[in-house]
Design brief:
Order of helices and strands: HEHEEHEEHEHEEEHEEEEHHEEEE
Strand order of the largest sheet: 10-14-17-13
Distance between the termini: 40 Å
CATH topology of the largest domain: Carbamate kinase
Helix content: 25-40%
Radius of gyration: 18 Å
Structural class: alpha/beta
Shape: globular
CATH superfamily of the largest domain: Acetylglutamate kinase-like
CATH architecture of the largest domain: 3-Layer(aba) Sandwich
Largest sheet: 4 strands, mixed
CATH class of the largest domain: Alpha Beta
Length: 245
């Protein structure tokens, strides 16, 4: 988040001028790791997801809502846009259920998005900035992977575009930026371990959205422009690669 650059916000301003409604769903993994280590709280990842005990969840929510959300909302405001921070567990915004309580603890997947909350903010010309904490039946809070949460929100509001922001220009294969990848190529690159780590939730979320009919999913850098005069920069994820004739 600290690496979000001026050029990134220039692209946001351009999208806003073109009357796009913008929603942020943010993470905060490195900051959570640092705080867990500071408090000597054991933590681990299982299949790329943070195993979440009650102690881990308390720290994660404190960092995400108290630090990351506040910081991102302030950055949006400083660049001439109007942000509004909200915890996903507020007003039933992100309804969730356990993925596998035995293996992952308090980790969930989103089952529904309360669109009325987002519509209320849109009507006030505000940009929702969502912390990915969901609520299960009975009010139990669950930790949600930010990429999966973003995909669920994009699908719920039938977004025209979904953008996954990272610290590189897109997906690099063998040292080269790939401007476009389709589902078969992504599966092969994951099997070949050319797509690894934190990029896997991004590409799997992207493919899930494409399968549900979303027009455009981009993986872009937060350090530079990703959109200018109708042109997107980064890696476009598609069901099948377009053939130019």
């Amino acid at each position: 988040m600290e690496e979000l650059g001026e050029a990134f916000f220039d692209s946001l301003l351009e999208l806003k001028k073109e009357e796009y409604q913008i929603v942020f769903v943010h993470g905060g993994g490195p900051a959570i790791n640092s705080m867990l280590e500071l408090y000597n709280i054991p933590h681990e990842f299982v299949n790329g997801l943070r195993k979440t005990t009650p102690e881990v969840l308390e720290v994660a929510e404190m960092v995400l809502s108290g630090q990351s959300n506040r910081k991102l909302t302030s950055m949006i405001e400083l660049h001439g846009l109007r942000g509004f921070g909200v915890n996903g567990s507020d007003a039933g915004l992100l309804k969730a259920e356990f993925i596998n309580q035995d293996e992952l603890g308090l980790v969930g997947e989103i089952t529904a998005v309360n669109q009325s909350v987002l519509e209320m903010l849109f009507n006030e010309d505000l940009i929702p900035v969502i912390t990915p904490i969901g609520a299960a039946e009975g009010g139990t809070k669950l930790n949600i992977n930010a990429d999966y949460a973003a995909a669920a929100v994009a699908n719920a509001i039938k977004a025209e575009h979904c953008i996954f922001v990272t610290d590189v220009k897109g997906i690099f294969i063998d040292g080269n930026l790939s401007p476009q990848l389709d589902a078969d190529e992504i599966e092969q690159h994951i099997n070949d371990k050319k797509i690894t780590g934190g990029m896997i939730p991004k590409v799997t979320s992207a493919l899930n959205l494409i399968s549900k009919g979303l027009n455009s999913v981009m993986i872009v850098s937060g350090k530079e422009k990703f959109y200018e005069e109708g042109i997107w920069f980064g890696t476009n994820v598609s069901a099948k690669k377009e053939v130019l004739t």
